[in-house]
Specification:
Rossmann fold; Glutamyl-tRNA Synthetase, domain 3; alpha/beta; binds magnesium ion; binds adenosine-5'-triphosphate
């Protein structure tokens, strides 16, 4: 796999495509534009997003959703939502509902075209009978192990099954009885009759149907035979009149089978499969099976845990649909596998929230500050700018009084070089309020700093000194008597290594980051946030973007940190440490 460190903004819509493409168009959009120019499909564009309802959608699926719904929208075409529910064992309605919600939340609309492969079971069965009748499929009675042995290897051709030349009538009879439930699971399968010597293993008489007595979440117990994905998918595309069937690269070797099936069974304009590189992100995983394992083994709180790369996790974390769509555009569509830096995803949400999230003040680790020369009992309402990026957002009133909280990190008793925040004897600005000077540090018996005693300069109201005097730092603050208490959850990467699935000899779980969640209780936020509803997004000045968690309510206020701001002091410290 080819690793590219993608700088924010480096991704062009075309991406590093392995095929030539028109300016501004990736190779898929170029192919579609050519088809339209040539009048193929009568100029129609019809795509589909085909999730299997066996887990929640993740950021990789978002790439596929944006591509499929995106090209349809750009060309005046249509995109279907189709549940590929051919494997009854792993599928569930919970997943169907979550998938619908996520696609809608991302901003896409399938109109009245929500389909299920299981809707086509009768039709797919009839098409299989058709293949049997024309001598293109047969019932094989080898065991699974025998089928594997007969299949050959990449270097050796396979051998024909002794059942391959069964007469058509016998095949029709056996297939009907498979459906009727006359045989136990595994006794027979239906196979396409293609070529056991094909260099492509997928063409060595692939299995089309297997007997499996399993309850299906939609068809119940109506069926005891189920079509294989490789059979159901191309035919579902053809049934729906799909023109461009966009899928990930691992299906490239399946394309000859896709074409074989649609050519055998359909006439006219048949769908074509086009493969693109899947999205890979560092420091996380994108396998539904492994994500399910994280949920089931309670390594995370659920599919929507804000550390998960799922759409629902990102939503709960505070990501906007716009930022995810923007990320997918930046990543682009290409033929070559690569790994995208998590930083690009974070960049996309920062860009979006910077534009529209209101700024508020919240103190994560409070340090009490008493302004000794501020009148007891006095409260002022100071005007604070809501968003410097958006003048239309205006200002709000924030109460200011004698006892305040500032961030513990904003004070050092013995400040290192380049630390410009508060220190004994030093003057700093409190955002939109006053200049204050630290006069005294109060400690408890154990030597911990518990309070600062400061003075304020009444002449600096609003945060400017009339004599032009400058300070080197501006701190956020809240008034102790007015602030409301909140719980804040800070997140770090879920894994400690870039590629948790690719570590020789280790299970991916070995690389779970034990510090991926830090919960801070007793945070203090400005009073205007008391009734902020779940999903409300804001910037805590100097700390990052935050979003109210659904755990809030009934007097409880919980915030998730979506993403930090790029903290200049943290970067300086990091540099100093690495020296
Ligand atoms: P499974 O192993 O369960 O098949 P899957 O991730 O392929 O997992 P599907 O539900 O089959 O899940 O995926 C739906 C669609 O999303 C498919 O067309 C698939 O190609 C696409 N897709 C899945 N993962 C990614 C990814 N990481 N990047 C881009 N597209 C993806
Ligand atoms: Mg799949």
């Amino acid at each position: 796999m080819n690793r590219t460190d993608q700088e924010p903004g480096a991704g062009s819509p075309a991406g590093p495509a392995g095929e030539p493409s028109s300016p501004g168009l990736d190779f898929i959009r170029t192919r579609i534009a050519e088809d339209r120019a040539n009048g193929r499909y009568g100029g129609r564009v019809h795509t589909r997003f085909p999730p299997e309802p066996n887990g929640y959608l993740h950021i990789g699926h978002a790439k596929s959703i944006c591509l499929n719904f995106g090209v349809a929208a750009e060309t005046g075409g249509l995109c279907n939502l189709r549940f590929d529910d051919t494997n009854p064992v792993k599928e569930d309605v919970e997943y169907v509902e979550a998938i619908e919600e996520d696609v809608r939340w991302l901003g896409f609309d399938w109109g009245d075209r929500m389909f299920y492969a299981s809707d086509y079971f009768e039709r797919l069965y009839a098409l299989a009978v058709e293949l049997v009748r024309t001598g293109k499929a047969y019932v094989d009675s080898l065991s699974a192990d025998e089928i594997r042995a007969y299949r050959g290897t990449l270097t050796e051709p396979g051998r024909n099954s002794p059942y391959r030349d069964r007469p058509v009538e016998e095949n029709l009879d056996l297939f009907a009885r498979m459906r009727a439930g006359e045989f136990p699971d595994g006794q027979h399968v239906l196979r396409a009759k293609i070529d056991m010597a094909s260099p492509n293993m997928n063409m060595r008489d692939p299995t089309l149907y297997r007997i499996r007595r399993a309850h299906h979440h939609r068809t119940g117990d109506a069926w005891c035979i189920y079509p294989m994905y490789d059979y159901a998918h191309p035919l579902s595309d053809a049934i729906e009149g799909i023109t461009h069937s966009l899928c990930t690269l691992e299906f490239e070797d399946h394309r000859p089978l896709y074409d074989w099936l649609v050519n055998e069974l359909f006439a006219g304009d048949r769908p074509q499969q086009i493969e693109f590189a899947r999205l890979n992100l560092n420091y996380t995983i994108m396998s539904k099976r492994k994500l399910l394992q994280l949920v089931q083994q309670r390594h995370v709180a659920g599919w929507d845990d804000p550390r998960m790369p799922t759409i629902s996790g990102l939503r709960r974390r505070g990501y906007t649909p716009e930022s995810i769509r923007d990320f997918c555009t930046r990543v682009g569509v290409a033929k070559k596998e690569n790994v995208i830096d998590m930083a690009l995803l974070e960049y996309s949400v920062r860009e979006d929230l910077n534009r529209r999230a209101p700024r508020v003040m919240g103190v994560l680790r409070p340090l009490r500050v008493v302004l000794t020369n501020y009148p007891e009992g006095q409260v002022e309402e100071v005007d604070v700018i809501n968003n410097p990026e958006d003048p239309a957002a205006g200002t709000r009133k924030v109460p200011f009084s004698r006892v305040l909280y500032i961030e513990q990190d904003d004070f050092r008793e013995d400040p290192p070089k380049k630390f410009f925040r508060l220190a004994p004897g030093r003057e700093v600005r409190l955002r939109c309020a006053y200049f204050i000077t630290c006069q005294e540090v109060v400690k408890d018996g154990a030597g911990n700093i518990v309070e600062l005693r400061c003075t304020y300069d009444p002449a600096t109201r609003g945060g400017d000194a009339p004599d032009g005097r400058r300070v080197k730092a501006t701190l956020h603050w809240v008034s102790a008597a007015h602030a409301c208490e909140a719980e804040v959850r800070l997140y770090d990467r879920l894994f400690t290594v870039e590629d948790p699935e690719g570590q020789e000899g280790h299970d991916f779980l070995a690389f779970l980051n034990p510090g991926s969640l830090e919960t801070l209780a007793g945070c203090q936020v400005e009073p205007g946030l008391a009734d902020a509803p779940p999903g409300y997004r804001c910037q805590f000045e100097r700390l990052g973007y935050f979003c109210v968690d659904p755990d809030s309510g009934g007097g409880r206020l919980v915030f998730n940190r979506t993403v930090s701001l790029r903290d200049t002091w943290a970067r300086i410290e990091e540099k100093e440490r690495s020296r």
